[in-house]
Amino acid sequence: MLGFYNVIKPTGMNSSTVVSIVKRASQQKAGHLGTLDPMASGVLPIAVGKATRFFDYFLKKEKEYIALAKFGVLTDTLDSDGKILATDNKDITIGDIQSVLHEFKEYDQVPPMYSRKSVDGVRAYEAARKNIDIKLASKKVQISGLKAEKSFKNNVFKLKINCVAGTYVRSLVRDIAEKLGTIAIAPLIIRTRSGPFNIDNSCTIEEIKNGTAKLIKINEVLNLKEVRLDYNQAKTLIDGKTLNIDLVNGQYLAFYNGSEFSVIEVLENLAKNKIYLYSEENL
Q1: Cα–Cα dist 189/204, whole Å
Q2: Kind and range of the H or E run holding 262
Q3: Torsion over CA of 122, 126, 130 and 134, rounded to 10 degrees?
Q4: DSSP code, position 101
């Protein structure tokens, strides 16, 4: 098996648990392409087999979230699952929120204490559980889209967020509240898109378990140019040699004998292997 499952992670489940389910169901190695908070739900792309070698291709892809922001309460986890640290009776309007959103197009964001960030080899969430005081460094994040779309009762608002990988929605909600002189948590976060993977072509945990989930092929999401290799060309690359080939510069998904063979990089009609996908014994 070689490809990706676009899994909808349920609320309350760790991303690593979803990976374990895929491993058991597929009997292949697997890895996610960007973790989701346990209390968040939504799109969690899982690479299967040698598709795990494409992790770097998705590092800087944009992600989209729908989140609820509840103003007037603060918890240690910045979601509804944590211990309440403070409350505030300040009423917020959707106009108040919209008035400060322009300040978050690019800013230095401090991750939540309950996160997988490490300080001196210690995970932040592990330190928080043991009441160990650590200081998390801020990181510049970029947010290309941020809207307050709807207001609800009890100081709750719906936000839509488009951002780069590494942005914490819980921290963003906390920081918006701080700009408004109050406090807030994110009781609901749904990731609706992660790079080329969106909620419309996703599958459930049950579909993974019963074998009905669609395995998305590599080029359905990468859209690389394709090239077919003959035996001698494939053997040249397997032997670690450079292949003479009449192609314009760029990266290609190379096929041999009907199967994905490798990603090759071509420069001045010379190709070299970049990501190897084929089993040599099948050549």
Answers
A1: 17
A2: strand 259-267
A3: 50
A4: G
Residue positions annotated with a catalytic role: 37
Q: Do residues 215 and 27 lie in contact, with contact meaning Cβ atoms separated by under 8 Å?
A: no
Instruction: Quote the distance between the C-alpha of residue 203 and its chain's center.
Output: 16
Domains (range + CATH), the chain: 3-61+196-219 (3.30.2350.10), 63-194 (3.30.2350.10), 224-282 (2.30.130.10)
Using the 8-state DSSP alphabet, how is residue 203 labeled? B
Q: What's the predicted TM-score (pTM) here?
A: 0.90
The alpha carbons of the chain give a radius of gyration, in whole angstroms, of: 22
- Model confidence pLDDT, tens digit, residues 195-226: 999 999 899 999 999 999 999 999 999 999 99
Neighbour tally for 199: CB within 10 Å: 16
**Residue 227 in contact with residue 237, Cβ under 8 Å?**
no
pLDDT tens readout for residues 40-90: 999 999 999 999 999 988 888 899 999 999 999 999 999 998 999 999 999
